[in-house]
Amino acid sequence: MTALPPDRWRRVEQVFHRARDLDPSERSEFIGRECSDDDQLRDAVEAYLAADERNADGFLTAPSPGGKPLEPGDRVGAFRIDRALASGGMGIVYVAEQENPRRAVALKVLRPGLLSGSAVRRFQFESEVLARLRHPDIAQVYEAGTHDLGRVTVPWFAMELVEHALSIDTFARANNLDLRDRAALLARVCDAVHHGHLKGVVHRDLKPSNILVDADGNPKVIDFGVARSTDADIAMTTQATAVGEIVGTLATMSPEQCAGVPEDIDARTDVYSLGVMLFELVCDRLPIEVEGRSLPAALRAIQEDAPRRAKELSGDLETIARTCLEKDRERRYASAAEVAADLRRWLRSEPIQAQRPSVTRQLRLFARRHRAFVVAAAVVFVVLVAATITSARYAQLAIDRAEREETQRILAEISAEYLEEILLAAGPIGGGNRMTLHDVIDRAAETVGAALAGHPAAEARMRTLIGDAYRQLSRFKQAEEQLERALALARKQEDKKLEASALAKLGAVYVQAGRPTEAVGPLEDALACIEGTVGDEAVRLELWNLLGVARFYLGELDAAIAWHKRALARRRELGEFTAVGESLVNLGNAELQLGRTERACEVWTEARALFREHSPDHAYLGTALSNLGWIRQRKGDFSGAEELFQEALEVLKRSYDEESPALAGTLRKLALLAVRTSDFETADARFLRTAELLTREGDRLDLAGTLADHAYAYTRRERWSEARPLIERSLATYAEVVPETHAMVAGPLYLSGLCDLRDGDAQSALRNLERSRAIRAKTLGEQHWQTANSASLLGECLLTLGRTEEAAPWIEKSLPILRAALGEGNPNVRAAETRLAALKGQRGH
Q: The sheet that has 75-76: what strands, in order across it?
């Protein structure tokens, strides 16, 4: 967004105010003289003048002469009037100075000519509403009261002053914002409006002049003078709107507002107005023109006429706008948050949620994108029909029963083979096209028992395939259910091959769901099932790989590396490039955890090259890219890290749906990157999104780690009380899936000790820090930087307790390890240096 810097805005204001005082016939020459060849200055001044003329009833207009204005120097409460700023429908807005704390504020005073009971109630209601809202993109109320003007007493409230403000449409024109910037700006407005809705407040008068944008491009929603609260405490006492009373600005009113039925007003009313603003921001005109119409005709048009079509608005952005502008509020977005989400999906070139194509269109698009799936499904259908016909014919001819059952079994297994091709092609790990096969697989799960009744071996195989498809879609509960049923069927048939297959897939579910303790048993049992058999090489190699991952999650890193190297060597011999890449990614994870960063980087780089050459849409390519980004971040190359993380997300989104927990790992790394660059607002949003993805049905270990990382972000800001509940949730989640001595548990224990220490409870801190250091020393080794980090903080804790000589070795030995691993300037290194200085101070050096 190309916003003008503050010093440029001061120049814009100077030229604007002088031009506004001139006769319109003299303005053009004056502007040409003052702006000369400065087109940016000229555009901004002209946009400001146009807004001044257009917003005759808005917040930005000059003060109305109808009310008695306060004079510069007058005092209202604790505020000294500086100058009149603007006049809205309810009051006059002044720039005022507050002495303590010293700041400029916008002081809004009810116009003396509007002292009816309803006007006073509405004005007071606005201040109460604003005082309840706490959002960076909503103008904040500081104080409210009444002021004696001599003959009358008027209410007032002081709120945040938006410096160098322009209405959102004027700002967009003055800065020549492109379509993407306009959509991104409106998405932030949607966030603010949604915050109001969560607090029970419907704005009811959203329009461009009520969305101010400062010189840095930050929006502020203002003027809640006609808002409606959905909370009973306010709605019942202060702001009743009579049936048939129309409140708001006509051009952006919703159909239900025009009808004047107050019980129909809810969050979707504001959604409609957001749609009007989106249309206006994109097309520079209203979706339904009301200018020049009588009031009844204008109200009827808003309730009955379809929004005009505009060439500037097309594709998914048009769908977003038209969904907001639906006459029937049931067909609109349910919330402003949904509008924001779809705008951001559009910005990321992702499918939007509002698009609701017909069933016929969905099938046509599905067939066009996934021809192989449709053909294979048709073949399965033909085979199943053939099985039924053949069975009936044999029955009719009274052929031997055993022969008939054998024929049915063969045909059922043929159908399973075709379904195997379909499901494996559909799975994201397979590197195929991005498919959303939830409905297809649900249907298969519902019907497989009846379809293959009497054929337990075929049913076992089919349920194994369905369970694995659920795993690849991160639907772990359904996957486990199908695989348990497949396992029972296989054991009943005493079919070791089927049993091994079901056990292997079940172990994979436990690994992917972050339940490694439960995974080891099924995986080892599966290996035992195929011991000494021929033709099960692929299954055996996958079991080695999965056992390596399970041991990694259990903190048994040497065992993990041994399994991965074993699988990798055999896969290299077989020339299975994609499988080699998978083994390399997993091997790199274990190497990094042991502190062997360069070795991890080498194997991930090799994996990236293999995937790019042989399987560029493979989900493991996304993992390799994400891991390499993490290395870049560790080395301080933040822009390089961001680039790799974003590339990783693009790869993963080609395989997974945007709600998939598979995206969480990269989002978590992006959140930590934002912490490293001190962009904590972005970090918080990314951590919350990551936790949201993982909470529904994701990896419990990843969830626990994400909670700990978010807590770390709060400790960086010394917000200990906000970090604590996240630490407790992290430890509780770890306790569900790993032993209390697991390497990953050491992280939240370290953070818990840090919070205790900063809150003055050094004794509690000592217990947590001793546990953290001991776990890391055992699992990672004494020379690992994480072990050194725990040791350094443990030393500070002992120093705080007055145990200086016990503290000394921890502090002194940890600093060189941290410097070597993390480099100068790292926050952990700086903290360790401070502790060493404190130690020397206590020793009197």
A: 75-76, 79-87, 91-98, 103-110, 153-160, 141-148
**Closest CA relative to residue 813, chosen from 831, 834, 779, 787:** 787
Q: Is the pTM of this model over 0.90?
A: no
734 with 799, same domain: the answer is yes
Q: Which tokens sit at 625?
A: 């890219």
Q: Is the dihedral of CA 297, 298, 303, 306 positive or negative?
A: positive
Give yes or no: residues 119 and 240 share one domain.
Answer: no
Task: Answer with the one of 107, 133, 160 that is the final residue of a domain.
Answer: 160
- Could you tell me which of 734, 742, 689, 680 has the C-alpha nearest to residue 708? 734
Residues paired with 92 in a beta bridge: 87, 109
The domain that holds 526 is classified in CATH as 1.25.40.10
Dump pLDDT digits (tens) for 180-225: 999 999 999 999 999 888 877 888 889 998 899 998 899 999 876 4
Q: Band of the pLDDT at 428, cuts 50, 70, 90?
A: very low
Q: Could you tell me how many residues make up the chain?
A: 845
- 503 and 598 both lie in a single domain: no
Whether 287 and 303 share a structural domain: yes
Q: Are 356 and 333 in contact (CB under 8 A)?
A: no
Same structural domain for residues 259 and 285? yes
Spatial CA neighbour of 711 closest among 741, 737, 734, 739: 734
Q: Look up residue 475 and give its two tokens.
A: 């639907």
The answer to whether position 82 is within a domain reads yes
181 within 8 A of 5, measured Cβ to Cβ: no
| Coil, strand or helix at 534 | coil
Residue 124: pLDDT band (50, 70, 90) is: low
Rg (Cα) of the chain, in Å, rounded? 33
Please tell me whether residues 320 and 223 are part of one structural domain. yes
Same domain for 149 and 193, yes or no, is no
The verdict on residue 402 lying in a domain is yes
Report the distance separating Cα 389 and Cα 459, nearest Å. 20
Q: Range of 649's domain?
A: 564-657
| Phi then psi dihedrals of residue 502, to 5 deg | -65, -40
Q: Is the same domain home to 330 and 384?
A: no
The values of phi and psi at residue 322, to 5°, are -70, -30
Q: How far apart are CA 171 and CA 219, in angstroms?
A: 10
